[in-house]
Specification:
Elements lengths: L18 H9 L14 H4 L8 H14 L17 E3 L8 E6 L7 H12 L4 E4 L9 H7 L21 E4 L3 H5 L3 H7 L4 E2 L11 E4 L3 E5 L24 H9 L11 E5 L14 H6 L7 E5 L5 E7 L7 E6 L24 E2 L16 E8 L2 E8 L4 E9 L5 E3 L1
Parallel strand pairs: 1-6, 2-3, 3-4, 7-8, 8-9, 9-11
Antiparallel strand pairs: 2-13, 4-5, 6-7, 10-11, 10-12, 13-14, 14-15, 15-16
Helix pairs in contact: 1-3
Length: 404
């Protein structure tokens, strides 16, 4: 039971970004790790061949009907006195250390290594930007995030590293493929500040001090459509009205006299050179925000940093894609034109990771944020623990951000 190692990257390679595709991949998921020192069995090399097994289709239908059909979990919002706004404080030396990772919930050996590196930073806070694979079920949240053994396979479960002060999580589209039930009922009650009375009550939150506000947004709740036909519909990832009201009434994000630096967190990207855009949240935020922000997101499985962009009535933002926590990391073919060349990245890690599965994938990694007064240092680290890129930001008395 769960003592042989983590899940294989190849089991997540080229995972379709649709509920149906994710459920199909779940139905042919391996039950035991492959041996790294020899070629994997033919069905592990070419998992699509498993679809010729009638049991795969019966399992797919069973999983899909059980977990995908029905209403989404009700949208949680804060009803307690804390209102989801917490102090951004550190345990020592006046520096607040926060580690971020996206698309980490795979249970792979790579995810486990990233988790260990994050824990080794001794962070005050850890935050997951969403996506627990394949479809965010109870068993997957337990196995891929909470470190609870799955008796139906031989993989070692993987536990999210916890911060010294607290830990939080955002939902990704894959959690919502399971209608959000496990995310809201199992995962959120396990997170929050390390005061048993203060649990994460909703899929959004704010951490703040005298100089900075870190605001986690839920872009996943509206990222799914109607079952079976969702492949042919476009999802807008709009922020729920309760979240918008929270931003206005509890966070006070529209207060023009508040000149703290703003760091936004979400699962879905605002913009991208490589993939589609989700501009609706940025357009909604324009009601509150009138200056550039630093925005971290996942969803795309790569590390890519962008200069200042604003699109279609949305807020101006310095985008930071860090969705390379545990999934196979996508590499962009050398010389290929970007899908959106108008927002080419200022930095992207496109190195090939020499993995024991001999896959053409990039380096997994995470981000370490260190807040010290009006200064913010961000180190982007890879699976070896090396700093791939580093930047330093400062916020001035007007709330303007400067890359120094």
């Amino acid at each position: 039971m769960g003592q042989l190692g983590g899940k294989d990257l190849r089991d997540f390679k080229n995972l379709p970004r649709t509920p149906i595709g994710s459920y199909i991949r779940k139905s042919i998921d391996a039950r035991t790790p492959s041996l790294k020192d020899r070629p994997p069995p033919i069905l592990e090399q070419y998992p699509a061949l498993k679809l010729y097994n009638p049991k795969a289709w019966s399992d797919w239908l069973k999983f899909y009907v059980k977990n995908r059909l029905g209403p989404r979990h009700p949208f949680n919002y804060y009803r307690s006195a804390d209102r989801g706004v917490y102090p951004l404080v550190g345990m020592t030396d006046g520096v607040v250390r926060l580690t971020l990772a996206g698309d980490w919930g795979t249970g792979t050996d790579e995810a486990r290594r990233i988790g260990a590196l994050m824990a080794g930073e001794i962070p005050d806070f850890t935050i997951h930007l969403g996506d627990i694979y394949f479809v965010g079920t109870l068993a997957e949240v337990n196995e891929h995030f909470l470190g609870v053994d799955n008796p139906h396979n031989d993989f070692t479960p993987c536990a999210w590293p916890l911060g010294e002060v607290g830990s939080f999580a955002l939902a990704g589209n894959h959690e919502m493929y399971g209608l959000g039930d496990a995310f809201y009922e199992l995962l959120l009650p396990s997170l929050g500040l390390w005061d048993p009375r203060i649990r994460q009550g909703a899929g959004f939150f704010c951490l703040e001090n005298d100089h900075w506000r870190v605001v986690g947004l839920d872009t996943a709740y509206n990222s799914i459509g109607w079952p079976f036909i969702e492949r042919f519909t476009t999802q807008n990832s709009r922020l729920e009205q309760k979240l918008v009201e929270w931003l206005r009434d509890d966070v006070g994000l529209g207060d023009r006299s508040d000149h703290r630096g703003i760091v936004l967190l979400s699962h879905h990207q605002y913009f991208s050179a490589f993939d589609e855009w989700y501009v609706n949240p940025a357009q909604q935020l324009a009601e509150f925000i009138d200056r550039p922000v630093l925005w971290f997101w996942g969803h795309e499985h790569r590390l890519a940093l962008y200069g200042l962009h604003a699109f279609e009535g949305g807020i101006p933002a310095y985008g930071r894609c860090i969705g390379h926590g545990g999934m196979p990391v996508d590499r962009w073919p050398e010389g290929k034109r970007f899908r959106h060349p108008e927002c080419a990245p200022t930095f992207a890690d496109n190195r090939r990771f020499p993995n024991d599965e001999h896959l053409d994938v990039g380096y997994n990694g995470y981000a370490l944020l260190a807040f010290e007064g009006p200064a913010l240092r961000v180190d982007y680290k890879d699976i070896t623990g090396a700093v791939v890129h580093s930047e330093r930001w400062a916020v001035d008395a007007t709330g303007a951000l400067t890359l120094v």
